[in-house]
Design brief:
The protein has 484 residues and is α+β, with helices and mostly antiparallel strands. The protein has a domain of 252 residues: DD-peptidase/beta-lactamase superfamily (Beta-lactamase). The chain has 19 helices and 19 strands. Strands 3-2-1-6-14-15 form a six-stranded mixed beta sheet. Strands 8-7-19-18-17 form a five-stranded antiparallel beta sheet. Strands 4-5 form a two-stranded antiparallel ribbon. The longest helix has 27 residues.
Length: 484
């Protein structure tokens, strides 16, 4: 064989080898990535060729499919308030792909998931048309609508999450601003709707409840208090009530709200400091218990952790704590601390559940076309974040906090408000509220965040803006539980 022929043969072998390696990588290691890519049009044609499973919650159909004249199935979102559910359910669009549960549970909904092999095999044997499986969600439609309306009717940007502390079932996950998925799915309105939604500075396509993390402010004092109680503090422990405190080895001072003494005293109990959310007391206690204890408490409550709910989720973070000055700021939920509304609800739910943190979940059951259950989600215990005794002490502190917030009107809820600074001094704070109903027959915890003061400016507080929303959602959840 002469040299030119050998070179051509070697070159051909190299091309063949490269092709085989490429095919191996694509088919063996990246098949799911390409097959499940939201822009894969072949996948969409396959999805549209069989009846796609429904998504429902509490008997209300949130997503369904109907066949057109060409035999392709088109998606619609028929509930009376599709914008309330859109950040969770998502959308399935020929032009713009898929999002939310429509995307993450695509193989279940279109019937191609490996777990549905037996069902597909039986369909083949019996000659029946293959269909997708259905998702039944944990959301309570009434509670979800109340949460969404509380945000949207007030023109707020933010999020609400309500869950059952004993199981982790998510009862509501509202996000504002939201969008109407039908406008994205309908070819006659899709382009204009897509352009309008993506030009909205409020980012309607973001699930603000799970995907957006923000500084939590004073609701983080629940975690700081847990660390203190773990390290010898009690409700009666004495702390500074001074109007300001200088961070160690700096000239930086942190002040209480309005630069006032805590409850008018230079020294106060932890109970008084918690009820009045006095920054100086928590800076002192946080520095005293140390960064390791605070970090351990934050980890136990799930700060920095994500869950597989089927919707995008950001982890949040405690941030770095290089010194005591940073520790003091972190102790009041500022500096680099970030949490999502979902993580805040889990935090409150953990206290409500005797210190046991449950994994939150959105999908309750998966059923076949005949509505027979194919599988269900069992509650999952993540960790005993705090002892039941500490959970009870925190509950009493949160009851006192609620009483202080409401002026002693006595809602019976255990709560903590938060007002989180961000940006410069001219920026309105993010306002927070976390709460639960501690009676034996109640099983609901809620977290609310309203961004940028909800229009109330730099003087906005969690008690003023976020707490009325949280109470309305708790009331709706308790009414739903009583009626079930």
């Amino acid at each position: 064989m002469n040299r030119p022929i050998r070179l051509v043969a070697v070159f051909a072998l190299l091309l063949t080898l490269i092709l085989m390696i490429n095919l191996t990588i694509i088919q063996g290691f990246r098949q799911d990535e390409y097959a499940n890519n939201a822009l894969n049009q072949r996948g969409f044609l396959e999805m549209k060729s069989i009846p796609r499973g429904q998504i429902s919650a509490g008997g209300v159909v949130l997503a369904s499919s109907t066949a057109d004249e060409e035999g392709f199935y088109n998606r619609s979102y028929p509930s009376d308030n599709p914008t309330a559910f859109a950040p969770v359910v998502g959308y399935l669009s020929d032009q713009f792909g898929a999002a939310g549960l429509e995307s993450s549970y695509n193989s279940i909904l279109n019937g191609t998931d490996d777990s549905l092999f037996g069902t597909r095999w039986m369909d083949t044997i019996t000659g029946q048309e293959s269909t997708g499986a259905n998702l039944e969600l944990t959301l309570d439609p009434t509670v979800q609508k109340v949460a969404q309306q509380q945000l949207s009717d007030n023109g707020y940007e933010g999020a609400v999450v309500a869950l059952q502390p004993s199981t982790g079932e998510v009862l509501a996950m509202a996000s504002s601003p939201s969008f109407d998925p039908n406008s994205i799915v309908d070819p006659t309105t899709a382009n204009d709707a897509w352009a309008e939604i993506n030009s909205d500075p409020g980012n309607p396509l973001t699930n603000h409840a799970s995907q957006e993390t923000l500084p939590p402010g004073s609701i983080f004092k629940i975690i700081t208090t847990a660390a203190g109680l773990e390290n010898g503090y009690s409700s009666s422990s004495q702390l500074t009530g001074a109007s300001s405190i200088t961070l160690p080895n700096t000239n930086t001072t942190l002040t209480n709200y309005g630069n006032q003494q805590c409850a008018g005293s230079t020294e106060v109990s932890l109970e008084t400091a918690f009820a009045n959310s006095c920054n100086t007391a928590f800076v002192q206690m946080g520095i005293d218990v140390g960064a390791d204890s605070l970090s351990s408490a934050a980890d136990a409550f799930g700060v920095g952790e994500t869950y597989d709910l089927g919707v995008p989720m950001s982890a949040g973070s405690l941030g770095d704590i290089p010194d005591d000055a940073a520790l003091g700021q972190t102790s009041i939920g500022q500096r680099d601390v970030t949490m999502s509304a979902l993580q805040a609800a889990v935090m409150a739910g953990t206290v409500a559940n005797d210190g046991l943190r449950m994994e939150p979940y959105l999908v309750d059951r998966i059923t076949g076309s005949n509505l027979d259950e194919l599988r269900s989600t069992d509650p999952n215990e993540v960790t005993q974040a705090i002892s039941s005794d500490i959970a009870e002490e925190l509950t009493q502190l949160m009851l006192a906090s609620e009483s202080n917030t409401t002026g002693g009107s006595g809602t019976g809820y255990a709560s903590k408000t938060g007002t989180a600074e961000h940006g410069d001094e001219s920026s309105a704070p993010h306002t927070w509220y976390v709460a639960f109903a501690p009676s034996e027959d109640a099983d609901v915890a809620v977290a609310v965040v309203v961004k940028n003061g909800g229009g109330y400016g730099t003087s906005a507080t969690g008690g003023q803006v976020a707490s009325p929303i949280g109470r309305a959602v708790i009331q709706a959840a308790l009414a739903a539980q009583e009626g079930s």
